[in-house]
């Protein structure tokens, strides 16, 4: 029998971030991280399972909704930008202290752009730009309808394009591309070096209450054909298992998890490593989603830097699989249906018929039809330069709603027991980019007795948290946000 202070379930960016915080705040606490696969960062945190966008609301149209009166609401964009800044400050602190390698080992400066076509979209982008640049956080963003200027920013957007087609773009030079897989490995190496027990090939099969804490039953998969299980008692459990978190939270029996369901969406990207093509595009360019498309399917043409090599990535193309993890079970979706979440799930199905139509359209689209979407961004694209890769699974949150019976959320949501002994993370993007503020909120919520004495050290790690009011404001993660595509 093993006993630990904290058990982290899942080897992704969220567990790694929480582990890093706790090792800095409470270095004597015993922490164990359990990952079902043979290495960490293999699901949503893997760089090819997400778009690697450092989400700072510099390019994503879904963070700036148009109101009925025609004005553009930038409140969500401001919040996301502030949250990414908190994550950045935390990463910089870790690097400055020598806890992880320098930021350029997992992050590269990659301008963020928004690109639209058609007079109506051009007009909206102009109004969006005017609203954003009135705020200090976005004051440096540029806007242009001039093809020559847009070509300076991203030549492939305008090369061989019809000169009579109305186009517009915004440009934010401070954007970033983030290899969340490399960052996760850095963080896990840090906590392991500080005494945490990191156990790959250990799958949590059961979670049950035990003496004020929790007992985890683990399957040790290192024994290959032989089945070996053992138990671990933990005072606190964090379920950072991506799409697998819902099952474990349901299994725990906490009432706070009742009513939650999951809607899995798979996806594909087109990728090219052709040096001649890659050299002509150095930006992350987000467009406008099709009518009925989920926010995570916003098309974008991105520079990606993985293991020091640059690529271009386009997508995502939505698909459907009942798996909650890329390496999950075909029974994940049906096994997640419970009496408590059946009504919300049915309500979501009724109210999101356009989403179902969109998914059917994506599933039945030919490869030529899909390639046309890339041509809309890059008229010179050649099929021979591009290959199809499968992205990670995303499980969108379905939950109870007092008026609609059930709603579909596109953001990241912390679900925690009232006594603070167990918490988990549900949902998709912008999760990875806002991992630090999400975990700060979790620390305050689940460790109320310790949180007051942690405020000083947290502010030293993340200067923007200084002051109780500022800290509480910045720590709130955005719920119901857009996201990336397939992002951590």
From TrEMBL:
<dbReference type="InterPro" id="IPR006231">
    <property type="entry name" value="MQO"/>
</dbReference>
<dbReference type="Pfam" id="PF06039">
    <property type="entry name" value="Mqo"/>
</dbReference>
<protein>
    <recommendedName>
        <fullName>Probable malate:quinone oxidoreductase</fullName>
        <ecNumber>1.1.5.4</ecNumber>
    </recommendedName>
</protein>
<dbReference type="GO" id="GO:0008924">
    <property type="term" value="F:L-malate dehydrogenase (quinone) activity"/>
</dbReference>
<comment type="similarity">
    <text>Belongs to the MQO family.</text>
</comment>
<keyword id="KW-0285">Flavoprotein</keyword>
<keyword id="KW-0816">Tricarboxylic acid cycle</keyword>
<keyword id="KW-0560">Oxidoreductase</keyword>
<keyword id="KW-0274">FAD</keyword>
<comment type="pathway">
    <text>Carbohydrate metabolism; tricarboxylic acid cycle; oxaloacetate from (S)-malate (quinone route): step 1/1.</text>
</comment>
<dbReference type="InterPro" id="IPR036188">
    <property type="entry name" value="FAD/NAD-bd_sf"/>
</dbReference>
<dbReference type="GO" id="GO:0047545">
    <property type="term" value="F:(S)-2-hydroxyglutarate dehydrogenase activity"/>
</dbReference>
<dbReference type="GO" id="GO:0006099">
    <property type="term" value="P:tricarboxylic acid cycle"/>
</dbReference>
């Amino acid at each position: 029998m093993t006993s630990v202070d904290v058990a982290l379930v899942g080897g992704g960016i969220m567990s790694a971030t929480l582990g890093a915080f706790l090792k800095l705040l409470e270095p004597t606490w015993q922490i164990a991280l359990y990952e079902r696969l043979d290495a960490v960062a293999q699901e949503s945190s893997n760089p090819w399972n997400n778009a690697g966008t450092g989400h700072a609301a510099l390019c994503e149209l879904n963070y700036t909704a148009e109101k009925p009166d025609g004005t553009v609401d930038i409140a969500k964009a401001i919040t996301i930008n502030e949250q990414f800044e908190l994550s950045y400050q935390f990463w910089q602190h870790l690097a400055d202290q020598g806890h992880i390698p320098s930021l350029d080992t997992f992050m590269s400066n990659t301008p963020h752009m928004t690109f639209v076509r058609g007079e109506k979209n051009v007009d909206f982008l102009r109004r969006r730009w005017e609203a954003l640049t009135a705020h200090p956080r976005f004051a440096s963003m540029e806007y242009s309808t001039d093809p020559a200027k847009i070509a300076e920013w991203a030549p492939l957007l305008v090369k061989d394009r019809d000169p009579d087609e109305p186009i517009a773009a915004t440009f934010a030079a401070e954007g970033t591309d983030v290899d969340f897989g490399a960052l996760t490995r850095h963080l896990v190496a840090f906590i392991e070096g500080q005494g945490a027990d990191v156990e790959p090939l250990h799958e949590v099969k059961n979670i049950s209450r035990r003496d004020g804490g929790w007992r985890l039953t683990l399957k040790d998969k290192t024994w290959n054909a032989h089945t070996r299980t053992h138990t671990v008692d933990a005072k606190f459990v964090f379920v950072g298992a991506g799409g697998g978190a819902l099952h474990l939270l349901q299994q725990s029996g906490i009432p706070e998890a009742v009513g939650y369901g999951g809607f899995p969406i798979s996806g594909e990207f087109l990728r090219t490593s052709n040096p001649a093509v890659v050299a002509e595009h150095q930006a992350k360019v987000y467009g406008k989603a099709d009518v009925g498309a989920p926010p995570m399917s916003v098309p974008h043409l991105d520079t990606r830097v993985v293991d020091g090599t640059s690529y271009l990535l386009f997508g995502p193309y939505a698909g459907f699989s009942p798996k909650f993890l890329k390496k999950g079970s075909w029974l994940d979706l049906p096994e997640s249906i419970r009496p408590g979440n059946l009504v919300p799930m049915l309500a979501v199905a009724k109210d999101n018929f356009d989403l179902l139509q969109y998914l059917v359209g994506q599933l039945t689209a030919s490869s030529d039809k899909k390639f046309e979407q890339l041509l809309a961004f890059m008229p010179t694209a050649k099929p021979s330069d591009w290959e199809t890769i499968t992205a990670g699974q995303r499980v969108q949150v379905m939950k109870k709603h007092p008026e609609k019976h059930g709603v579909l959320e596109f953001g990241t949501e912390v679900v925690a027991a009232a006594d603070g002994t167990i918490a988990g993370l549900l949902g998709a993007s912008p999760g990875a980019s806002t991992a630090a503020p999400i975990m700060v909120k979790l620390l305050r919520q689940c460790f109320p007795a310790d949180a007051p004495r942690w405020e000083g050290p947290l502010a030293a790690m993340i200067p923007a948290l200084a002051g109780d009011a500022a800290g509480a404001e910045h720590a709130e993660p955005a719920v119901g946000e857009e996201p990336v595509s397939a992002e951590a």
